[in-house]
Specification:
single chain, Nucleoside Triphosphate Pyrophosphohydrolase, seven-stranded mixed sheet, three-stranded antiparallel sheet, 9 helices, 12 strands, about 20% strand, globular
Length: about 300
């Protein structure tokens, strides 16, 4: 297993940036910056569920929950992702009890107005429950709900089918949203070349005691708990497909040896938006992040003479 500390981490990140999925590379080649208008991104939220390692095979000390998206999905089919999805209309202005840090603080960390910050947290909790059965809600700020009763599946299906809102479900059951369990980690914006674009806030959260993930048919067909380092090695070996934000998030998390360490580190995170760019040079596609050399416009004549920024 790779050592993901120090220079090794830097080497791995460099390799990840060069692993642009073939379909993404093709869209990059077809995109015309001077003619094609990027699709406006939709607000979305994703949750990185964490637990301390349960086996000797989890070398990093922590494990993360990954879902494999079904091959029938229009976006990221077959890719391993964290639970999450776009903000729904019912998430906006939802009236429910809120156990969290003051709203102004949450909004500042998310780079959003208070109303959108609430909607993002609501979407994060709702999507996590819909996709893997974990509910970050409780009767007070010290408890989490027991969702083992079979009756909860009816509520999950109602949420999934948009027949009920999260606010309605939690209110009926006397619960509040445990926004305090979610810690902002990053903000990724889909590259401009993509037809489906999202402005996604990434949260980290400890797996609630007494709850468990389960495979839920529909958007995903596999649920996997594994260490970040193992997931990355499987990705680099071509056995676990991932979009760059997922792989890079795993690379960051591999630096920590406990869930508490991740949660503590979240307080010092820079959550300004990250908009990756794909540069075509020498016939190959390479992903660049804002702090990378060459992230700005690449003109003909630079490097090997056929570079272009998309």
């Amino acid at each position: 297993m790779a050592d993901l500390t120090g220079n090794a981490a830097g080497d791995l990140l460099a390799r990840l940036r060069q692993r642009v999925p073939p379909d993404l590379a093709e869209r990059a080649r077809a995109f015309r910056p001077d003619h094609d208008t990027p699709t406006p991104p939709r607000d979305a939220a994703t949750v990185v569920l964490l637990r301390d390692a349960r086996s000797e095979n989890s070398a990093s000390g922590i494990e993360v929950c990954l879902l494999r998206r079904a091959s029938t999905m229009a976006f990221a089919a077959g890719m391993y992702v964290f639970p999450g999805g776009k903000v729904d209309p019912a998430d906006i202005g939802a009236e429910l009890r809120w156990f969290a840090t003051p709203e102004a603080g949450v909004a500042h960390l998310l780079g959003a107005e208070p109303a959108l910050a609430r909607a993002l947290v609501c979407a994060a909790v709702r999507e996590t429950f819909e996709e893997c059965g974990v509910l970050l809600a409780g009767a007070d700020a010290d408890t989490v709900a027991d969702v083992s009763d079979p009756g909860w599946e009816s509520d999950r299906l109602a949420l999934e089918g948009r027949q009920a809102s999260l606010a309605a479900v939690l209110t009926r059951r006397g619960l509040g949203l445990r926004g305090d369990l979610l810690r902002p980690w990053a903000r990724w914006v889909t590259p401009e070349i993509e037809p489906r674009r999202y402005d996604t806030r990434f949260f980290v959260a400890a797996m609630p005691a007494g709850q468990r993930t389960r495979r839920i048919p529909g958007e995903s067909d596999r649920t996997l708990w594994t260490s970040p380092s193992i997931a990355l090695q499987e990705h680099l070996a071509g056995r676990l497909g991932m979009l760059p934000p997922t792989a890079l998030t795993l690379a960051e998390l591999a630096e920590y040896d406990s869930v508490d360490a991740v949660l503590t580190a979240s307080g010092a995170r820079n959550t300004r938006p990250i908009l990756p760019r794909i540069v075509i040079a020498g016939g190959e596609a390479r992903l660049l992040l804002p702090h990378d050399v060459g992230y700005g416009p690449v003109h003909d004549g630079d490097g090997d003479g056929d570079g272009r920024d998309v």
